[in-house]
Amino acid sequence: MKTLHIDKDTYRKKTNLVMVGFVGCLAVLALAFGSILIALFGSEGITESGSTGNFHLNVFGVILAVIVSAVVMNKVKSNPYFDEIMYVWQLKQIHNRIYRKLAKIKEKAARNDHDSLLILAFYYTTQQQVFTLDNNTLTITAVQKSLNEVYEQATEMNLTLELDGFSSDLLDKY
Length: 174
Fold this sequence. Notes:
Elements: H1 8-41, H2 55-76, H3 83-100, H4 102-110, H5 114-133, H6 140-156
Helix pairs in contact: 1-2, 3-5, 4-5, 5-6
């Protein structure tokens, strides 16, 4: 996977706009579907407890709204507007895969395995990028320290770590 430079302000603006749009769409659709279902299938009277008995129709309306919103997001995510958001989302998925195998990767990296060092270099570099984009600066110094250690080890072993050489297929052997 190729690493990309992303402008933090543009990323934050697009992410916030997409989140507000998604939540707004979800709310409007949930109300609309709930109202339509109640108009079509709802009970007319109010019970002694004060309930209309239409709770299940409202829940079904919310479920329909989630499904429609997810389908719409799935269709529009290939639009160039979403490139930065999708790139960071894919990085977070890869980080999750690496994190689950991190102990084995570090074990092999300690034995100077080139692929393991490449995975760690990619992991720490892109983790630093994501932390910066998401304003998560609490642990960024620890990530930078780990990244420096990986590159120092690679330099001692005369190994070059080209991040463009990283592929998620490298994780399959762990």
